[in-house]
Structures are given as C-alpha cells and as structure tokens.
Specification:
mainly alpha, 404 residues
C-alpha cells in the first residue's frame, strides 16, 4: 500500500489537479484499479463529476454494482443530462440483469437502450490512451526471440538495423508462430529496407511466404500472395498465375490473418505490460497485415491486357472480393467491396457497380454508428479488452449490435 500511495503522490504532483481525473481514467482502463481509486479519493469526496464517473466505472469493473449505482446517482444529481451519465446508468442496469454476459454485448444493449445519444461538445473525460513506450531493458529480458521481434517491431523505426536482423533470424525460425513469421515478412518487404539488403530481404520474405502457404494449406489468402508477389506489381497475370489464383480462391479460408497477428502481439506485450497488451496488439496488427497481397492483385490485373486473360482476372477480382466481404472484420469488408468494384468496372457491369455502391454506403453507416459509442471514453478495463478481441473475431456483428 505504501508503494501505491507513493505512486499516487507522484501522479498528482506530475499532472496537476486539472488532469488527475484523466490520469485516473487511463489507469482504470489499464486495469490499475488500486492506484486509480486512490488518486480519485479527494475528488470523489468533493463530488467532482469526472471523478464520480471514473469511480463508477471502476466499481463496474470490480462487479460492485451497489457502489457503481451509488456513484452514478451522485453524478446524476449534478450532470443528469450528460450523455455519458445516461449510458452509464444503462450499463449498470444491463450488468445487474446479465452479470455473466460479455462486456461488448452489455455495452451494445446499454447504448441502444439509452437512445445512442449524440456526443456532447464537452465530455467528462479526455481521450484515454492506455499505450506507453516499452522499456528496452524489459524487451531484452523476454525469453522468446519471436516475441522480441514483435516488441521491437512496435518500437524500432522501420528500416533500423536491429529490426531487420531480427526479421532475418525469425524468417529462418521453423518453430515460430504464423504471427511472428508474418511480422518478419512485413519487415523484410518494407520500402525502407536499405538498398544493399533489399534483394536478399525480398528473397527471404518470399521464401518465407511460400513456407507459410505450405504449412497452412487451407489459407487461400497466403497462397494467392505466394503467386502474386513473386513477380513485379506491374507484371501482367499469366495463364499459370490465374489458374493458381482460381485454385487459391477455392480453399477453405480466404481472409486477412488478423487473429494470428493479434494473438501473437497480445502474448508478447502481456509479458512486458499487460495493461496495454490488447490495445497495442490491435494497433500493431493493423500495421503488420500483409495488405500488399490484394494491392498487387489489383495492380497486376490492371496490367493484364490480353482480353481473355483480362476477363478471367476480372472474375478473380470479383470472387476474391466476395470472399473477403464475407470476413469478420470491417477492413475485410471494405477491401472486398473495393475488389468487387474493380472487377465490375473491368466487366462494365453497371448493375454490379450499383449493388457494390449500396453495400459501401451501408458499411459506412455501420462504421459511423458503431464508432459513435467509442467517441465517449469508458474507463472499464474489461470492456476495452473485449472490444479489441471482438474487433478481431466478430467486428461486423459487434458493430451491427451497436447500430441497433
């Protein structure tokens, strides 16, 4: 407890009174509840609205629903019309009604029941960011070399010598997860690779991609990448290329490798800073996804001039787009619709163009409605963690719930 008290004193001294609530909110979102609670004590005693809001959220995290209700009622006496206060009351009600439900389901129901209020000009809290720089010493003490690559990827600048050498080492590592190998490939193909290492790096990356495709035979996305990236982005598709792509599109899976990357990053960051593991895993996953695969597909289709091959290429775009559109994430849906639009334009299919345009509009609306809930700040650690997990497994379904 003495250590906690010293930490609190340090935070207050460093942040100043005006920012104590926001500091506490970040700590609460990271799961550091004891420090956050002590930091808020004097402000809760004086009925500071932001402090009461954060304290209610901490009580929710602790499943102390009686305390959460008490703080929420005290807050409502001075800020009854604040959107966060309205949603908070519904969150507490929903958690009382269904204490075992996953947090994102509870949040979606509370958001709907509260009428999805418009964002106020001034919110109770500032933006919550649970991420922090990782101490290089902590990275050095991580046992797994693959995990060290993932952590260095999050901190070292692209093209740095240490990151590149770590990627070369992991590209040769047979006993590595798919997530680690995907990051190694990303580093080796990055545009900031020094010119003198570029040929060796590209060769190692493509060999690694071939190996990943062989070890995951159901994964059509990786298989298509192994075909597409071997030639330059402006190289026309050949008969053999198209046959291989058509075969890849028939495999059981054709999706972005979101989950393997997320799981790998989360496990790595949990070793050095659990409070940001989920958030950091999600943001680093977005950086490491092998998006070159579908980009090069579009470029090579555009470079294909033979009319018969161009027709087959347009069909490949349409099927690849449809497979990705069926994915669980919003990014896959967006990419899928983009590929379908390009295929429809190549075919001159006005009806398909209109259908894809309507789907895009619906997806844009879905994203806006879902993001509206997260335009507010919710210092509830379990909700944050479930939010990032849901975004990698059922993001579309999750946003549909938030839109009802």
């Amino acid at each position: 407890m003495a250590a906690v008290a010293l930490t609190v004193l340090f935070l207050i001294a460093g942040a100043g009174k005006a920012r104590v609530v926001d500091r506490a909110a970040v700590l609460a979102a990271r799961g550091e509840l004891a420090v956050a609670g002590q930091l808020l004590e004097p402000l809760v005693a004086s009925s500071n609205p932001g402090a009461l809001f954060v304290r209610a959220c901490i009580a929710l995290e602790e499943s102390n629903l009686a305390a959460a209700s008490r703080f929420a009622e005290q807050l409502a006496s001075s800020r009854s019309g604040a959107p966060e206060v309205v949603v908070l009351a519904r969150l507490i009600e929903e958690r009382k009604r269904a204490p075992e439900d996953r947090w994102t389901d509870v949040a979606a129901r509370a958001w709907s029941a509260s009428g999805r209020p418009m964002r106020a000009t001034k919110q109770l809290l500032g933006a919550i960011d649970v991420q922090r720089p990782i101490d290089p010493t902590a990275i050095a003490h991580v046992q797994g070399r693959g995990d060290r690559l993932l952590l260095e990827f999050g901190g070292a600048p692209a093209g740095s010598a240490g990151l590149i050498e770590a990627a070369f080492a992991e590209a040769d590592g047979v006993e590595r997860s798919l997530g680690v190998h995907l990051v190694a490939m990303h580093v080796l193909l990055h545009e900031k690779m020094p010119e003198k290492k570029r040929t060796r790096a590209r060769s190692a990356a493509l060999d690694l991609l071939d190996a990943m495709a062989r070890s995951h035979p159901d994964d059509g996305y990786l298989a298509s990448g192994a075909v597409l990236l071997r030639a330059g982005a402006q190289a026309p598709l050949t008969v053999a290329d198209l046959a291989s792509l058509e075969e890849a599109l028939e495999r059981n899976s054709f999706a972005l490798p979101v989950r393997p990357l997320f799981d790998a990053f989360r496990a790595a960051y949990a070793q050095v800073d659990p409070g940001q593991a989920h958030s950091r895993a999600f943001s680093e996953t977005a950086r490491a996804l092998p998006l070159d695969i579908h980009v090069v597909l579009s470029q090579r289709v555009a470079a294909t001039s033979d009319s018969a091959l161009r027709d087959r290429a347009a069909a490949v775009l349409a099927v690849a787009g449809a497979r990705l559109e069926a994915g669980a994430t919003l990014l896959e849906r967006m990419i899928g619709l983009s590929l379908q639009m390009k295929g429809a334009r190549l075919r001159g299919d006005a009806e398909a163009i209109e259908v894809v345009g309507k789907k895009r509009a619906r997806l844009t609306g879905l994203m806006a409605n879902g993001n509206a809930f997260w335009s507010y700040q919710w210092p509830i650690a379990s909700l944050w963690r479930d939010h990032f997990v849901r975004n990698t497994t059922d993001e579309v379904g999750y946003y549909e719930l938030l839109s009802r």
